[in-house]
Amino acid sequence: MDISLTKKTLKTAGLASLALAFSPLYAASLEGYATQNGNTTGGAGGNVVYATTGTQINQAMCERADDDTPLIIYVTGVINHGNTEKVSGSCDTRDNEIQFKRVKNLSLIGTSGGALFDEIGIHLREASNIILQNLHIRNVKKSGSPTSNGGDAIGMEKDVYNVWVDHNFLEASGGETSGYDSLLDMKNNTQYVTVSYNHFYLSGRGGLMGSSDSDDQNGNVTFHHNWYDTIDSRMPLLRHGTAHAYNNYYNDIAKSGMNPRIGGSIKAENNHFERAKNPIGTFYTNDMGYWDISGNIFEDVTWSPASKEHPAGPNPVSTTSISIPYSYQLDAANCVKSIVMQSAGSQKGLKTSNGNCGVH
């Protein structure tokens, strides 16, 4: 894609050299629910700026002509509390998280030089048409010091539409008792999201759709080619709404995997579960959800029914039928582990499946 570099470049020493280093824009192809509701293009066609601090990210948002002007922000280096300050103007930014609030048409993309968000999370609120790509976000805490974004690496809440979360590495260093919450949460009317080629690592909670049983306006979310690695639960926890999970790899899952409940429905196709407890089912409640399952590999898994524990196995069958409104490429389940381990996460060259049990 031909990218017109910049009408406005942030003034920091050495940033001009980043023009030679950034990753190709939208090298990965978008599939899933984010293609619906008018599609998701982020900042395509807008100005391109470069940032090495959180303050510069905030400045880039505040310097747009208006809150809808398309913008692509390329990030290199370490973003943390020490280099993130609130910037005033027509924007609504904060100094303890990267907040996209009441904005549209933005892309936040890590360069090939690496973009690490260290103990600082990304929060989307009343936002639409957003792309988050090739970012490493780690150790965001809700308790202890420093705190950020309620302990979520990425959080979306209140009227968030059309978001693509792609090729990111999201990690924590433990669970809630260590001060962390979730790696990816969607709440309070978050719709039309694709979560693709991300590496979720070492966390008590993968993520949820719906923060409570009354939070019933979330859904239409696709999860594909993600790597859930040493996670306790919530992959995702789904209250109400519909999700589509295909070609994901799950290993070392301690408590539960996909958890549709209170009417939530998930279509699970050609996923690979390895060393996982209760990969699919309704857990921690008797308010049942539903699943449409086919082609999944269950390797060295355990199914443990109990009070308020309703696993789909040991002989899992579908309890509903879900129609998917978009086209997508489905890899064979026996290829998923290899494909995902080569391509999921940041700094993997935005590699994707080549449709023939390999990556390109």
UniProtKB/TrEMBL annotation:
Keyword Protein biosynthesis attributed: no
Gene Ontology cellular component annotations, sorted alphabetically: extracellular region
Signal peptide: 1-27
Keywords for the protein's UniProt record, in alphabetical order: Carbohydrate metabolism, Lyase, Polysaccharide degradation, Secreted, Signal
Cellular localisation: Secreted
Keyword Repeat listed: no
Residue span, Pectate lyase domain: 52-279
GO biological process, one term: polysaccharide catabolic process
One GO molecular-function entry: pectate lyase activity
PANTHER family, sorted: PECTATE LYASE 18-RELATED, PECTATE LYASE 21-RELATED
Family: Belongs to the polysaccharide lyase 1 family.
Protein's UniProt name: Pectate lyase domain-containing protein
Organism: Marinomonas transparens
